[in-house]
């Protein structure tokens, strides 16, 4: 991913890039919007904790494709109140790679359960399957 | 499309995948958000009927590219009230392929006309143009 | 980008295509949602002026990748009130290429600052780096 930040326009408000270019020939991963729910079904109260869970889920999903948070191209985040932006942004800044991805943030009316304060959805891209380091078997000497 | 559903995180709430991987070298289709309006301009009252129309429209659009609903990679759906989620989800579950695509759902304030209760937008992907089966002409036997 | 507009469904409400197909092997650019803020930090009152600034920003971002507004595949636009749709649509119609990209429009509750009335986010695609025309040096005649 190549960040696009033209000098002629206002710099990003926070830790994100104005655009992200994906070279031809890369794999793409489209993730479902993630919500702040743990594997055991618990939903933390705070938006920061919810966002952290979202990013942990996203990391797990990308991991299934041999990708990681640093491969995110764009984050679309939705919060249910302006007051939740700060907690979300702290979590985002702690989780994105360098250079940071493109990012869109807005306030919406709600998600699948009223308890959720934030939903985070990403697109990621990476070159063809990175090969796992091959295990070298040294032939025994005779 | 390869579904990504890590065992370590909470399973999807419904019939969708946590992520969808598009291999390198595929065509992509980005659809406009579809609304529940028929070719004759009528807008059904129910959200299920509106969502069914959205998916019918999406199938027609994808068809222009030689793709079908099973090629959807991610669905982004927006409803104007939590009460509309059920009808939308029933329609989605009836229309998506197996494995199901990634999916994001949220409540927003409205669309281009107040009558619309749901808007559905998809990204789809498929290999280079599938060739139509060539018509085989059997030479007559003499 | 190839527009997808099946004859069997209702024609687009305005200047956009129902779908846009990206051939295999193209570069993609994902832009951050742009807001109506000038390089000097001023935010115009009107939604049309805000949307014009968004498109100017988007043109600058795409320019960093050797792309232009005509390479937009899909626009996702969000306004905070139905009354803002008209001004946004006038700006969109003035800025998109021919054929026009896919487009999704909805009303949401707000953006990073209460002054913002519209947010515009795009995906664009183009073939591998277009080469700049090489400067031809004519050998001096002796």
Task: Provide structural commentary.
- 3 copies of one chain form a homotrimer.
- With 142 residues, the first copy, chain A, is of the alpha+beta class.
- Chain A is 20% helix and 26% strand.
- Chain A has 2 helices and 7 strands, in the order ββββαβαββ.
- Chain A has helices at 47-63, 85-95, and strands at 2-4, 19-22, 27-31, 34-35, 72-79, 102-107, 118-126.
- In chain A, the strands form 2 sheets. In chain A, strands 3, 4, 5, 6 and 7 form a 5-stranded mixed β-sheet that branches.
- The radius of gyration of chain A is 18 Å and the shape is globular.
- The termini of chain A are far apart.
- The mean pLDDT of chain A is 93.
- Chains in contact: A-B, A-C, B-C.
- At the A-B interface, strand 3 and helix 1 of A face strand 2, strand 5 and strand 6 of B.
- Strand 3 of chain B pairs antiparallel with strand 2 of chain C.
The number of helices of chain A is 2
Report the order of strands and helices of chain A: EEEEHEHEE
Number of strands of chain A: 7
User: Beta-strand percentage of chain A?
Assistant: 25-35%
Gross morphology of chain A: globular
Q: Greatest chain-chain interface?
A: A-B, 34 and 36 residues
Give start-end ranges of low-pLDDT stretches of chain A.
none
Mean pLDDT of chain A: 93
Q: Main beta sheet of chain A, described?
A: 5 strands, mixed
The separation of the N and C termini of chain A measures 49 Å
């Amino acid at each position: 991913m190549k960040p696009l930040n033209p000098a002629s326009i206002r710099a990003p408000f926070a830790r994100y890039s104005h655009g992200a270019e994906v070279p031809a020939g890369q794999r793409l991963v489209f993730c479902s919007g993630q919500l702040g729910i743990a594997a055991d079904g618990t939903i933390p109260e705070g938006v920061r904790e919810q966002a952290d869970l979202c990013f942990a889920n996203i990391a797990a999903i990308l991991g299934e494709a041999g990708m990681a948070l640093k491969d995110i191209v764009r984050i679309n985040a939705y919060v249910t109140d302006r007051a939740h932006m700060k907690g979300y942004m702290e979590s985002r800044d702690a989780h994105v790679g360098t250079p940071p991805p493109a990012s869109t943030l807005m306030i919406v009316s709600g998600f699948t359960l009223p308890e959720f304060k934030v939903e985070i959805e990403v697109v990621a891209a990476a070159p063809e399957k990175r090969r796992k380091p091959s295990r070298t078997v040294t032939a025994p000497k005779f």
